[in-house]
Design goal:
Blueprint lengths: L2 H4 L9 H9 L2 E5 L4 E3 L7 E7 L2 E6 L5 E7 L4 E2 L1 H6 L6 E4 L3 E7 H10 L1 H27 L2 H15 L1 E3 L4 E3 L5 H8 L3 H13 L3 E4 L2 E4 L2 H8 L6
Antiparallel strand pairs: 1-8, 2-7, 3-6, 3-8, 4-5, 4-7, 9-10, 10-12, 11-12
Helix pairs in contact: 4-5, 6-7, 6-9, 7-8
Amino acid sequence: MDINVLERSTVVSLSAREIEDFKQLAKCINMKPGQMIFQEDESAQFVYLIASGYVKIFRCSPLGEVVTVGIRNKGDVMGVAEVLSGINRRCFAEVLEASELWKMEGKSFIEMLYKNPALAVKVTTVLGTRLREAEQTILNLVTLEVDRRLAKLLIDLAQKHPALGEKGLKINLKLTQQELATMIGTCRQTVTTTLQKFKSEGLINSGKKSIEIINMEGLKNFADSKVLT
């Protein structure tokens, strides 16, 4: 199985030249798991390019509940929307594993976009894609049962962050069941029960912070409300 074939065609990546141009105007920072890159309500002064590692984007409800809204990985640029709109941060960004980031001042990034229209189009495309994903997440929360929401999430994570498993496609992220729960608007116990259901149906294998989809077609059929065989 070729991982590259499984990556979504909607992913927009910076070219090697664009990455080098970014680095020329940025500062390299190395961060450890659990470190915060930025927090809600902070002034948005920088944008970040992820050179390696994974970053969790999340928000907190008025009751203090953590809601994971996205995972960013190698090649992603973060913190763009607030810099372009001139507003404070709306989310938190936390490093999930040891990561190398390149930090650029927002003013320099905007000047870079003016000088490189092709890059500006890429950034706009990425922001548009993230908006569509957010809209789809809202639709799923309103219209789908929890087990179907979890099925769609697992498929999406496997396609965005793929790794070859023993029998299928492994999600190349170490996410807790609580983190999965916050991404689909449910509780950890429900995720635990549903993962066990998928495992008993022969759709996945799961371990501690490890999920491998061994029957992608079956999981997709279930997510789309088709009857499992």
